[in-house]
Amino acid sequence: MTQPPGDPHPPVPPPLPDTAGPTAPRSAAPPPLPSQAAPPPVPQSSPVPQPPISQSSTPDIEAVPRAPRASDRAMLHVTEQTRTYPCGSCGAALAFNPDQQNLACGSCGTTYPIIIDPQATLSRHDLQSTVQEIRALIPTGQEGNEHEVICQSCGGRTIFNGTLTATRCPYCATPIQRTDIQDSPERLAVDGILPLRVSEDHARTEISNWINSRWFAPSEFKKYRTLGSFTSVYMSYFTYDADTVTQYRGRRGDNYTVVVGSGEDRRTETRIRWRSVRGTVANRIRDLPENANTGFDAKRVRELEPWPMEQVTPYKPEFVAGHLSRTYDNDPMQVFTAAARPRIDSMIESTIRADIGGDHQQITSKQTNFSLLQFMYVLLPLWLLTVSFESRPFQVFVNGLTGEVQGQRPWSKVKIIAASVAVLIVVAVIAYFVWRS
User: Fold this and answer.
1) Considering only CA atoms, which of 321, 423, 427 is closest in space to residue 92?
2) I need a surface site. Which of 181, 250, 254, 331 has the fewest CB within 10 A?
3) What keywords does the record list, in alphabetical order (predicted)?
C-alpha cells in the first residue's frame, strides 16, 4: 500500500466478508477508466455485514472481537487486475508460511489464519463437455505472452510472462497475484490445492545433501547459491477419475518341461503350451495426477510422485501469496491424450494380464469404454533450483510436501578421468604384488 513519507502505519481498509471477495481498490491506485466495470467502493460510514458463522466453525471466528483472518487482508486492485496482502499492523507484505500454514508478516510477525469453509467441496468436471465449453470461449487471436502491471505498493512495473499468475515485485518484493487469468471465462478456475509444507530452509538443506552426494558433479555446480535460481512454485495439475470396462482377446501360455535327447545329450527343456482366451475387465481409477505445465523435465517431475491427493483442500488464493504460481499450458483434454490416457491404458493392460493368468500372456485386441471420465484442476507445490552450467540449464526439484529431491546434474570429465586413473593404479599395484608373490 502506498503511504505518505514518514507515516509508519498506513490506513487499513475495513475487512469484507469471505464470501464477498477482496476489498475495493486502495486510494493510492489510479481511478478506473469509464469503460471498466469497477465495483463501487465499500461505504465507510456503515459496517460491513459478516457472513453467518456455522456451529462447526473454528473458535477464532466465533466471538467478537476475533483474530484477523487472512481473507481480510486481500487487496483487489481493479485498475491493475491484481491482488496483494498488506499486513494490518505494519503495512508490509504478507506471504503464506509453510511451517505455520497461514499468512505471516516477515516484518512484524503478525499472522492471519486461512479459514476454509467446512461446507466447501472439491468440484470435479466432465472432461468432454467442459473442454468443449472452454474451447468455444477462446478467441481466435492469441494474446501476447507478456502482461505488465504497476505495483500498488511502490509503483514499479512488473512483467507477468506466459502462464505466470503469482510473483513478487522485483523492486519491493510485494507478493502480487493476477486476477484476470483466474477470473477469465475462457480459463478454468482452480478447484483445489495442496498447500506448501516444506520451508525454504528445509528445501535448501535437502538440495545441498542431494548435490553433495553427486560425487562426479563438477565442483562449480555445487556452488548453486551463486550460480542458480531457487524458488517455490505451484504447478498446475489435472487429476483424472475414470471407470472403464475393457473387452479383450488374447492367448495364455503355460510352461511345461520335457526330457529330450539321450545319453550325454539328455536334457530337460521348458516349453510353452498356448491357448486362446477372451474376457472382460473393469478398472476404477481415482485422482491420477498429470502435470499441465511445459518447460519442466517431465521425467524428473513424475519421479516426485506419489502426491498425497487425499489431502487436497479447496483453493484459496491466500495459499499462493508470496510464491510463484502458473496456470496450465495445456488444457485437460490435451493432458489426458498425451499423458493420462497412456498411463490408464497401461493399468488396463496390467489388469488384463492378471485376468489371463498363466506364465505368459499375449493381448491380441482390446476395446475400452469409459463409463466415467472426470477431472479436477489442482495446484501442487515444489521448490525449483535452476542452474546454468557451461551454457546449459539444469533443473533440480524438491517435492513441496515430502522434501523428496529429483533432478539433473552435469558430469565432471576431470573427476571421471581421475577416478578411472585411480582404479587402474590400484589394479596395477594389486597385480604387481600378486606377481611378486
Assistant:
1) 321
2) 254
3) Membrane, Transmembrane, Transmembrane helix
